[in-house]
Amino acid sequence: MKKILNYFTAMFLGLTLMTSSCTNLDENIYDSLSPSNLTGSDEETQDILGNLYVQLRFMYWAWEGYFDINEESSDLLMTPYRTYGGWGAQYINLHQHEFYAGIPHLWQEWYYCNKGITEANQLLEVPTIQNNPEAKAEVRAIRALYYFILFDLWRNIPLETELVTEQGYLPLQVAPEHIWDFLVKEIEEAVPDMSTDKKYGRMNKYAGAMLAAKIFLNHDAWLRGWDENSTLIMAPNAKNNRNLQSEWFKTNAQNDNKWYKKAYDYAKIVTDEGGYTLAENYKDNSRNKITSSEAIFVLPLDGAKASHNYLVNKCFVGRGGQAYGYSGTPWNGSCAVPQFIHTYDPDDTRLTDTWAIGQQYYFDDKTFPIYEEEQKVADSDPQRLTKAQYDADERHAKFGNSVGYYPLIYTVEVHSINNPGAYDFEGARFHKQEIVPGNRGTYGDDVCFYRLADAMFIKAECILRIGGTYDGKTEDDAAAWVTEVRQRAFKDTPAKATRTAAQLKGNSIYDYGVRECTTSGSANPYNDFQYDADGNVKSSSFTTYTVDNTTTIELGGLLDDLAWEFVGEHHRRQDLIRFMCSDGRNVYNGKTWFCHKNKADVGDWHNNVFPIYTEFLTSNVKLVQNYGFSDSEETQE
Asked: What is the pLDDT of residues 388-409, one digit of tens each?
């Protein structure tokens, strides 16, 4: 059996393979794959497919993985420096778009996606896979998903489609059109042969169709800055091996909306053929074990054998887990960007389904408020600090950055990202994913990677972008699909669920602009934020307060709905890059928000991708860093 020698690690020489369902996490070990040690049975075929999914799990939820890099570089979620200490600067770099090659978040996705690609290439040479059309199509689709992730995050990547045996071989980066052409061919050939069976944790035809829809939906966003005249391609091999005849270079405007039509067509396969239905409850798609009729493709985790989902600890303050019966001690990290919380309609149940705000109560007695350092008071003591005592307490005058004997009340407002940072209870906390009582928390929570609502939104976006009738559907149909998804969030106020095409095509209601309070004007810093009669925080509460409303956002209403529905589902970075401002920049580069102050110049797209992590550059001397990035934070261009 041929072995691969590449620039990653000798770990690639062995395959660790899961059993067929991808939910049984006991492992079988194969030193190599060859006709002599394979029988070709269905059970064995499923066995050898399993390891491809393992890499997705690590990619997504290994520490500083795919969740973080997509969500924390956006305008919805952040991990600020906490004033008592903790939380590395890499989270602040993500939030402020000060990317450099030493950010640890850049390791997981590159490493595990390339590891998955290597293993897919190896499997595609095994006769058991070659002779099974469904299995072969599944391997090709998973490999395409890995390439999709790499291409979206870095663009300037190698293309490896078979095993290589030459000693000392190192992959070369290729021009983006080669990756695009490969992705299109690979997924369009794979989808028709994929199984329509719904196996938990496995890609089927409908998961493949979702991937195809995502590929075509993002074409124009990927192309910006990476066309034939691009300054963003640095690798000599990429510059010298262009294919200018590739359809990659044709935008939707130049191609009769071909890519949007294809994205729509593949999403339609899901909505019309898959038999999926919207879950009754929004949170059904974020359960510990997802049984939702909406889920198309799930990444299975396990609290004992694959416990990667650490959100319960990353998001909550020390005693905050007790509101959910969680017995661990969270680390007080991530919270919502305040401006995003202010966009919610108060009757939208996704607000409370997603965010913990205000006074927290014990899980087993929801009328009894939680205090930090509750151990200072005997359980039998009925005395509790009143709100007036809390406001007047002088502890913060002496211990301004310490968690103390205070009611655990999460505020929406936050002082800053790092100057001085966020105080103990500042920021709404993400609890969209189920927190299981006891010691499990979110650690075994599965990931709903694709779901029906996403397919419905893709169809709606494509119709709105085409700007007319396609497949007999109009912009009113697009609005109806978004409305249908919204209805479960407005069961008590159904009229508010309705969205019109005009609303979806209108500007975003997100109040963009810098917000930062760098100094505390009171003994209790939580009193720094003052509110008007309508409950809105006064601009005078901020040291820096700017309004960023000189540009409008195309389909801004739809962008808002994408945020409310898919926050925390690895969506937002890609959406912000795809949606354009009226000044020619995308939202990701062209808008400011909480402590995110710098806009890219018009035509500067280099922050649409990330730098390649330093370790991979030093491991493969043929890799060239993406344009505009350096290895260190201090010297980046």
From this structure: 444 444 444 443 444 455 678 9
Residue 609 has pLDDT above 50, yes or no: yes
Q: Is 441 left (phi over 0), alpha (psi -120 to 50) or beta?
A: left
Of 322, 422, 420, the C-alpha closest to 372 is: 322
**How confident is the model over 268-285, as a mean pLDDT?**
98
The C-alpha atoms of residue 49 and residue 26 are separated, in whole angstroms, by 14
Q: Where are the alpha helices (DSSP H) in 230-291?
A: 236-240, 258-273
Residue-wise pLDDT tens digits, 534-580: 889 999 999 999 999 999 999 999 999 999 999 999 999 999 999 99
Q: Where are the alpha helices (DSSP H) in 164-230?
A: 176-190, 205-217, 219-223
Phi, psi of 24 (to 5 degrees): -85, 115
What are the pLDDT digits (tens) for 25-52?
444 544 455 555 666 677 777 777 888 8
For residue 481, give the 3-state DSSP assignment.
helix
Q: How far is CA 609 from CA 76, 152, 348, 598, in A?
A: 19, 7, 33, 16
621 vs 7, 28, 174, 452, 611, CA distance in Å? 9, 35, 15, 43, 15
Distance (Å, whole) CA 140 – CA 191 = 9
Half-sphere exposure (CA, 13 Å, Cβ side) for 314?
24
Given phi > 0 = left and psi -120 to 50 = alpha, else beta, which region is 194?
beta
Residue, of 153 and 7, whose pLDDT is higher? 153
3-state secondary structure (DSSP) of residue 17 = strand
Domains, the chain, in order of start with CATH, read 1-64+104-201+231-242+609-637 (1.25.40.890)
- Single-letter code of the amino acid located at 322: Q
Residues in the chain: 637
- Residues 597/543, Cβ–Cβ less than 8 Å: no
Look at the pTM and tell me if it is higher than 0.70.
Answer: yes
